C-alpha cells in the first residue's frame, strides 16, 4: 500500500497560497524595519538611445544649425548635434523614411515616408514632436524638395506629377504640375516617376524636373509650361545644379555623367564615365554600375568638385563600395567598409546661388557614418565622436553599473586614450549644433559590452551620454593559427570561437572575469603599467565525474551541473573531498583531452589596462566536447571565482542526504544528442547582422529547465546563479562565515561554507575547504538573483579587496607587505553586531522570498507571475531605499519593496519580441536600466520618478538661435543690368487666391501634437510646471507685444488725424461762411 505523505499536501497548500500578491508566512521579525520606498517613487520612461541607427535609409543636414538627421527603415529619426547632443524620435506608422528636408535655421524638419505620408517635426523643443502630417491617398511619394527660405514644399510622385504643400499650414495648393503637360505632346510613353526636383539657383521661377526614364524638363512656374526638355537614353538617378544656374549634371544607370547647358537641349555638352575603360578606337566606354547620386559643388579659387557614389565597372567583382571625388584632373576613389546609403556635401554657404566652398562629405553607410575632410590632401576622415561602434562586432552580452567609484572612469579613460588610431583629420568635428543639457547628475555610470570577436568594451554612460573608455581584446590570449590536429576539437564551435558569453566585474577591486563560448574563463587584473608576460598562467580542467563507478546523471558534463572553487591564481590546482569527486588535472594523458582553443605559448606584451592573470579551460574528454559555462561569480576578497561546469562538487554532494529528487544513475552517452545535432552547441548570438538571418523568427522559445516536461527533468538540474556573502552558514549559527549561495534551475538555493586559509603565504599554499551546509530554500522556477540585507534592511554587498597596482616595481618582500596591509574584506557585514539577524532575498522565475537568518525561516514571499516568467531580476539601491526590479517575458517591468515584497510598480512596458532583449536587459542602481533595442543601438530607460522629473533638464537642446548668413552680394553691374538671382513671389503663384484649393480626396491633413500643446503634454513634475510657466509667460509676452503694437498703431492714427484736423482748421479759419 502506498504511503500517504501529509508533508507534500501541506507543501501543495503552501504553493497555492503563494498566488496571493504578498504573503507574510513567518513571525514578524522585521516589523521594526521601516520601508521608505512607495509607489510614487517609480515611473517608467525612456531616457536616451545610443548607437548607430539600425538600417538607415535617408539623411539631411542643416548647414546653419549644423545638425544631422538620419531616418531608418523602421520609421525612426536620429538627430545629431555636437558630441553628447543626440535625439531619438519615432514615426507611429513605422514606415521607412525615404527622404528628409530641413527648414534651414527654422528649427523644423520635413520627413517623407514610404507609406506616402509627409510630416513636419518641431525641433525647437528637447523632445521633437510632429506639428502636421499629410497622408496622400491616390499617389505614391518619390521625391521632396524644399527651397532655402521658402515655405512651399514640392512633392513628386510615382505618376510623374508634382504637388505643392504649404509647410506652415500643411495644406495642398491647387497648383499642380501634371506629367503630360511637362513632356512633349508627341511623346506617347509615360516618363516614369519623379526622381528629382530643384529650382534654378539664379531664377526661382524655373524648376528642373527629372523623370526616371531619362527626360529632364525645365519648367516655368509663372507661365505654367516647359521651357526646355532634355532627353537621354539612360535612366536618371540624380540631378545637380552648377551654382550659376547655367549648367546642370545628371547621373545615369549606365555609370555615366552628363553635363547640360540649360539653353542647349539637343545633346549634353559633356559625357563622363568616371570608372569606364576608355576604348582605343574612340568607341563608347563599356557600361558600368549605376551612379546613384552626384553632387556638383563649386569653389571660388579652383575647379569644381564632382562627388558621386556608385558607377564602378562590372568587372570589379568583390570590390568594396566607393565614393568618388573628382577635382580638376584628379580622381580619388575612397573605399568604404559597407554599402553607401546616402551622402551629403557640407558647404560654407546655405545659398545655392553662391560659390559652395565644400569642406566635408558626410557618408551614410549601412553600418557606419563617415565624414571626409575635403580641405586636406588625401581626404582624411574625421574621428567620429559619437558612440556608433557598439556593433563593430555583434554584442553578445552586457552589464550596467551605476554609482561606480569616482576614480574608475578616469583610470579607464587614461589607459583607453592610448588605444586611439592615428591619421585622422586635424579639424574639429563639423556637426557641432545644439547645446548640452543642464543636468547635475552626481554619480558615474559604466556600461560593459561583450562581443562576438572576443572584445570587451567599457563605456562611460554618465549623465545620459555615452563615450567609449577602453577596449579589451581577449582573443590575444589565444593562438589564432590552429593546426590540422586542433581543428577537430573546434568543429562544434561557432564561427566566432572567441565570443564572450558571460562577464562579471568588481568595480572596487577592478577585477574582471569573462567566460567565452569555447568553455574558457579568463581572469583580468587592472594595471597602469605595461608588462611582458613570458608564460600565460593556464589551468586546464578535465571533467570526469564518477559516482560508485557509474557516471552521474547527464554526465555532470551537462551545463551547470557542477561548480568549481579555484584557489588564488598562481596556486597549483587542488581537489578536496571524498574520492568520488572528479579529478582536476592539467595533463592530456587521456586520448582527446584537448581544449577548444590553444593558449599562446609565446610571450604576451600587455599594455596598461586589463592584463591576463589566469586562463581556465575545459578540455575534451573521451571524444566529448566540454559544455558551455552558464553562470559566473567572482570575489576579490576571497581570491576565488566560481562558474558552473568546472566542478569538484556534483549536485548530489551539494544536496547531501537532503536531495529531494530520486536521481537514477545512467550513462551520459545515452542521453547526449547525436553527432548530427552539433549545431545546438553553438552560441546563438542575439545581434546577428547577417542578411539571411535578419528575417528569421525572433519569437522567444523557452529553454529553461522549469519548463521541461520530460519525466527526467529533475536529473537535468543545472546551476543558474551564484552569490558570495558573509552570513550565517547554518541554521542557528551565531558567527558570520564566508559563504557561497548556489541557485539551481529547479528553484533550490544551497549554501556552501568557505573555510579560507589565513592571508599571506598560507593562502597561496593551502586549499580552500568547501563544506555544503544543505538546502536553504526552494522556489518555483530557476533562481535568478540572490542578495543579503542587514537587520536594518540595507544591502550587504559581497566582500571585496580594494584595487592595488599588481605590477608594483618593489621587490618581493616589499610587495608582500603592501598586500598584507590591504584589508581582506571591507564588507559592512564585518561591523555588524553578531546578535543581529540578516535577511536573504531570493528571486526566481516565478517568485520572490525573504528568508530570516540564521533561523532560516521564510518571513515573506510573493508570487510575481503565474502565466509568464522572469527574464531579468536584480536587487537595486534606489535613493530612497532597496527594491527588487524584475523584467517579465510578457513585457512587464515590476518592482517590489524590501523586505516586505510589496508590489510598488507594474507597467506593461515592452513585449518581448526577440532573444536580444532577453539577453541584454540590465537593471542597475538608482532606477537605471538598459537593453539592446536593435543590433546596433542601446536603449536606456529609467524607472525612477526623480530621474523622470529631471530628464527634461538633462536632455540637450537641438535648436539654438543663430543668425542666417547674409545673402551673396549681387554686385553693381548685375543689379543694374538685371543679372544675379531672380526672386519669385510663390505666395502669389501657389496661394489659395490664385491657385485655388486642391482636391480633398488627394491627401488627408492630420494635425500633430507638436509645438506648445506637445510640450505641455510631454512635460511633467517640477520641470513641467516650469515649462508651463515659461510657456504662459511667452504667450503673455506675445499678447502684450500685440497689444503694444495695436496701441502704437492707434496712436499713429490719432496723430495723423490730429495733423489733418489742424491743417483743415488753418485752411478754413479766415474764410467767411459763404465761402464754404
Automatic annotation (TrEMBL):
Keywords: Cell membrane, Coiled coil, Cytoplasm, Exocytosis, Membrane, Phosphoprotein, Protein transport, Repeat, Transport, WD repeat. One of its GO terms (biological process) is Golgi to plasma membrane transport. It is found in: Cell membrane; Cytoplasm. WD repeats lie at residues 229-263. Residues 1011-1071 form the V-SNARE coiled-coil homology domain. SMART domains: WD40. It is a peripheral membrane protein. Residues 572-589 have a biased composition (Low complexity). InterPro entries: Lethal2_giant, Lgl_C_dom, LLGL2, V_SNARE_CC, WD40/YVTN_repeat-like_dom_sf, WD40_repeat_dom_sf, WD40_rpt. Its main location: membrane. PANTHER family: LETHAL 2 GIANT LARVAE PROTEIN, SYNTAXIN-BINDING PROTEIN 5. This is Syntaxin-binding protein 5-like. It comes from Monopterus albus.
Amino acid at each position: 500500500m502506498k504511503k500517504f505523505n501529509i508533508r507534500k499536501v501541506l507543501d501543495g497548500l503552501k504553493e497555492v497560497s503563494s498566488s496571493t500578491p504578498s504573503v507574510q508566512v513567518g513571525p514578524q521579525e522585521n516589523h521594526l524595519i521601516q520601508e521608505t520606498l512607495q509607489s510614487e517613487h517609480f515611473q517608467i520612461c525612456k531616457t536616451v538611445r545610443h548607437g548607430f541607427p539600425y538600417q538607415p535609409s535617408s539623411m539631411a543636414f542643416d548647414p546653419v544649425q549644423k545638425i544631422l538627421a538620419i531616418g531608418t527603415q523602421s520609421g525612426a529619426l536620429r538627430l545629431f548635434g555636437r558630441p553628447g547632443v543626440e535625439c531619438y524620435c519615432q514615426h507611429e506608422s513605422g514606415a521607412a523614411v525615404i527622404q528628409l528636408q530641413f527648414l534651414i535655421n527654422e528649427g523644423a524638419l520635413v520627413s517623407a515616408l514610404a507609406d506616402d505620408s509627409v510630416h513636419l517635426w518641431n525641433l525647437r523643443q528637447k523632445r521633437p514632436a510632429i506639428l502636421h502630417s499629410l497622408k496622400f491617398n491616390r499617389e505614391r511619394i518619390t521625391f521632396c524638395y524644399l527651397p532655402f527660405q521658402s515655405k512651399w514644399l514640392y512633392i513628386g510622385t510615382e505618376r510623374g506629377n508634382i504637388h505643392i504643400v504649404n509647410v506652415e499650414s500643411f495644406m495642398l495648393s491647387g497648383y499642380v504640375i501634371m506629367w503630360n503637360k511637362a513632356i512633349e505632346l508627341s511623346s506617347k510613353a509615360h516618363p516614369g516617376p519623379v526622381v528629382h526636383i530643384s529650382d534654378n539657383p539664379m531664377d526661382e521661377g524655373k524648376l528642373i524636373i527629372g523623370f526616371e526614364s531619362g527626360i529632364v524638363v525645365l519648367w516655368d512656374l509663372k507661365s505654367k509650361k516647359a521651357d526646355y526638355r532634355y532627353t537621354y537614353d539612360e535612366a536618371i538617378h540624380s540631378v545637380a545644379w552648377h551654382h550659376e544656374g547655367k549648367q546642370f549634371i545628371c547621373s545615369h544607370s549606365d555609370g555615366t555623367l552628363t553635363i547640360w547647358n540649360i539653353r542647349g537641349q539637343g545633346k549634353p555638352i559633356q559625357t563622363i564615365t568616371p570608372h569606364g575603360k576608355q576604348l582605343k578606337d574612340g568607341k563608347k566606354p563599356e557600361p558600368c554600375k549605376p551612379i546613384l547620386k552626384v553632387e556638383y559643388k563649386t569653389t571660388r579659387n579652383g575647379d569644381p568638385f564632382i562627388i558621386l557614389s556608385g558607377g564602378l565597372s562590372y568587372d570589379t567583382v568583390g570590390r568594396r563600395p566607393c565614393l568618388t571625388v573628382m577635382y580638376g584632373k584628379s580622381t580619388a576613389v575612397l573605399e568604404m567598409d559597407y554599402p553607401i546609403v546616402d551622402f551629403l556635401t557640407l558647404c560654407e554657404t546655405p545659398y545655392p546661388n553662391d560659390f559652395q566652398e565644400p569642406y566635408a562629405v558626410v557618408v551614410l553607410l549601412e553600418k557606419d557614418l563617415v565624414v571626409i575632410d575635403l580641405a586636406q590632401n588625401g581626404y582624411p576622415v574625421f574621428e567620429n565622436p559619437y558612440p556608433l561602434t557598439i556593433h563593430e562586432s555583434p554584442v553578445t552580452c552586457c552589464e550596467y553599473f551605476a554609482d561606480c567609484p569616482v576614480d574608475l572612469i578616469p583610470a579607464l579613460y587614461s589607459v583607453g586614450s592610448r588605444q586611439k588610431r592615428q591619421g585622422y583629420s586635424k579639424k574639429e568635428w563639423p556637426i557641432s549644433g545644439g547645446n548640452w543639457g543642464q543636468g547635475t547628475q552626481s554619480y558615474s555610470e559604466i556600461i560593459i559590452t561583450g562581443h562576438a570577436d572576443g572584445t570587451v568594451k567599457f563605456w562611460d554612460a554618465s549623465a545620459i551620454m555615452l563615450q567609449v573608455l577602453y577596449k579589451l581584446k581577449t582573443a590575444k590570449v589565444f593562438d589564432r593559427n590552429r593546426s590540422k590536429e586542433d581543428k577537430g576539437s573546434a568543429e562544434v564551435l561557432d564561427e566566432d570561437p572567441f565570443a564572450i558569453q558571460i562577464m562579471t566585474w568588481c568595480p572596487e577591486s577592478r577585477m574582471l572575469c569573462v567566460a567565452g563560448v569555447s568553455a574558457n574563463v579568463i581572469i583580468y587584473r587592472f594595471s597602469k603599467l605595461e608588462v611582458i608576460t613570458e608564460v600565460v598562467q593556464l589551468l586546464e580542467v578535465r571533467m570526469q565525474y564518477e559516482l560508485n563507478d557509474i557516471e552521474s546523471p547527464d554526465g555532470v558534463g551537462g551545463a551547470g551541473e557542477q561548480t568549481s572553487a579555484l584557489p588564488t591564481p598562481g596556486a597549483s590546482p587542488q581537489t578536496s573531498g571524498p574520492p568520488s569527486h572528479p579529478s582536476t588535472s592539467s595533463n592530456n594523458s587521456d586520448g582527446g583531452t584537448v581544449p577548444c582553443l590553444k593558449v599562446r605559448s609565446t610571450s604576451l606584451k600587455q599594455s596598461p589596462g586589463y592584463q591576463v592573470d589566469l586562463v581556465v579551460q575545459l578540455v575534451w574528454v573521451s571524444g566529448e566536447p566540454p559544455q558551455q559555462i552558464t553562470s559566473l561569480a567572482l570575489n576579490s576578497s576571497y581570491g576565488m571565482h566560481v562558474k558552473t561546469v568546472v566542478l569538484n562538487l556534483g549536485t548530489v554532494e551539494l544536496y547531501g542526504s537532503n536531495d529531494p529528487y530520486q536521481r537514477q544513475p545512467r550513462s551520459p552517452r545515452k542521453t547526449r544528442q547525436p553527432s548530427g545535432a552539433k549545431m545546438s552547441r553553438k552560441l546563438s548570438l542575439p545581434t546577428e547582422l547577417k542578411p539571411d538571418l535578419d528575417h528569421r523568427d525572433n519569437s522567444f522559445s523557452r529553454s529553461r529547465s522549469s519548463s521541461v516536461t520530460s519525466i527526467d527533468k529533475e536529473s537535468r538540474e543545472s546551476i543558474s546563479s551564484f552569490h558570495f556573502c558573509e552570513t550565517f552558514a547554518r541554521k542557528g549559527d551565531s558567527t558570520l562565515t564566508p559563504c557561497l549561495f548556489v541557485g539551481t534551475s529547479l528553484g533550490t538555493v544551497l549554501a556552501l561554507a568557505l573555510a579560507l586559509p589565513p592571508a599571506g603565504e598560507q593562502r597561496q599554499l593551502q586549499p580552500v575547504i568547501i563544506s555544503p551546509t544543505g538546502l536553504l530554500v526552494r522556489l518555483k522556477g530557476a533562481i535568478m538573483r540572490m542578495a543579503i540585507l542587514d537587520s536594518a534592511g540595507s544591502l550587504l554587498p559581497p566582500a571585496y579587496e580594494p584595487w592595488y597596482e599588481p605590477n608594483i616595481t618593489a621587490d618581493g618582500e616589499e610587495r608582500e607587505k603592501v598586500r598584507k596591509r590591504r584589508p581582506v574584506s571591507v564588507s559592512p557585514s564585518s561591523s555588524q553586531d553578531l546578535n543581529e539577524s540578516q535577511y536573504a532575498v531570493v528571486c526566481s522565475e516565478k517568485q520572490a522570498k525573504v528568508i530570516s537568518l540564521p533561523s532560516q525561516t521564510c518571513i515573506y514571499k510573493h508570487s510575481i507571475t503565474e502565466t509568464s516568467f522572469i527574464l531579468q531580476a536584480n536587487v537595486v539601491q534606489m535613493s530612497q531605499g532597496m527594491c527588487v526590479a524584475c523584467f517579465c517575458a510578457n513585457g512587464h517591468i515590476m518592482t517590489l519593496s524590501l523586505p516586505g515584497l510589496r508590489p510598488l510598480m507594474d507597467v506593461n512596458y515592452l513585449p518581448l519580441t526577440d532573444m536580444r532583449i532577453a539577453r541584454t536587459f540590465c537593471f542597475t542602481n538608482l532606477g537605471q536600466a538598459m537593453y539592446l533595442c536593435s543590433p546596433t543601438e542601446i536603449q536606456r530607460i529609467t524607472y525612477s520618478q526623480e530621474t523622470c522629473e529631471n530628464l527634461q533638464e538633462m536632455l540637450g537642446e537641438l535648436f539654438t538661435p543663430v543668425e542666417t548668413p547674409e545673402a551673396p552680394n549681387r554686385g553693381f553691374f548685375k543689379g543694374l543690368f538685371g543679372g544675379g538671382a531672380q526672386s519669385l513671389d510663390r505666395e502669389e503663384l501657389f496661394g489659395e487666391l490664385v491657385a485655388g484649393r486642391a482636391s480633398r480626396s488627394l491627401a488627408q491633413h492630420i494635425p500633430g501634437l507638436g509645438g506648445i500643446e506637445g510640450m505641455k503634454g510631454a512635460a511633467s513634475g517640477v520641470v513641467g510646471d516650469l515649462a508651463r510657466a515659461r510657456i504662459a509667460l511667452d504667450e503673455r509676452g506675445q499678447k502684450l507685444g500685440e497689444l503694444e503694437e495695436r496701441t502704437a498703431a492707434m496712436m499713429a492714427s490719432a496723430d495723423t488725424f490730429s495733423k489733418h484736423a489742424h491743417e483743415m482748421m488753418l485752411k478754413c479759419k479766415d474764410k467767411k461762411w459763404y465761402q464754404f
